[in-house]
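hey so i finally got around to running the thing on that chain from the lab meeting. sorry it took forever, my laptop kept dying and i had to restart like 3 times. anyway pasting the input first so we r on the same page abt which one it is
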Amino acid sequence: MDACPTPVLDPEAGAEAGAEAADGLLARQRRVLRVVLAINAAMFVIEIVSGWYAGSTALLADALDFLADSASYALTLFVIAKSDRWKASAALAKGAGMGVFGLWLLGETVRRAFDPAVPDAVVMGGVGVLALAANVISAVLLFWHRGDDLNMRSVWLCSRNDALANLALLAAAGGVFATATAWPDLIAGGLIVGLELSAAWTIVRQATRELRAAHAAARG
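ok and heres what got predicted. didnt touch it at all, straight out
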């Protein structure tokens, strides 16, 4: 019986196959990012209006978080086909923006703690359920791309943290309804701030490492 022939590798064919695979991955990433960008932009409008109407710190915090995520997805779409250095720089900018946003939310939560007004628990709960569904859908779509690169991981972290924050928002709505006080709303706002600052630190730290590695490679 003849032995199986040794396959002859064609470098050009391999390069073409690799390029086609990369193009396919970029196309899938763009489709997912456009969908989650549309979801988050729509939820920002819904939550900012309902947050002011209901007088809810947690809803307003979540609304601005949807805005930050929308900007993050748009930025990721912009750098998706660029170099690793561009992507690390974009991730650093997103992480820094999340950190600034988190600090602003911390100040807003403290300010409202000195003048608490009881928010509308029914509006909080209804919009919270809608926001949770939006973030779970976004997180599931991004889950399959979280290992592609740092930028895709950063946007997945955003959606995952937002889904967790929505659970806190729903718990706050129940707490406001049960106690008729603003404290559950303020506590939920504080938890959202904590998630935001933690994710910001993780992204900034990893982006800084990748930028240093890119600079070292360029010098070498």
